[in-house]
Amino acid sequence: MRWFVIFLSVAACDSPSLEFARAPVTRVAVGDMVFSVRVRGERAEAIRTSRHLLPREGTVLHHAEVAIERASGCRVKSLDADQAIQRATLDCDDAPDDPAPFEGRVVVLKRY
Fold first, then answer.
1. Which top-rank group of organisms is this from (predicted)?
2. Where are the domains positioned within the chain?
3. Element (DSSP H or E) covering residue 38
């Protein structure tokens, strides 16, 4: 039983919700945080995969919004989130040609 619990805790680290299960993933680093971002139509889900001890919610949400915008190419219209999983509604009709600047490092690590 103990091994089953350990397996589940490790397996759930980067598992998307059912809505995004088959969506391609883009890993994006924003500052010192790394997110796995999945986009389906006008919705996106980001999962923070980097470890931080008690991250500030405002910082996580801002970094997640930047990661989602960079991965999708769309603006975030609304964000429903906590420090681990962030879900966004996108506005792709009003997508900027040049994304908003971010004071820090933003790197799209890998798309697959």
1. Bacteria
2. 20-111
3. strand 33-40
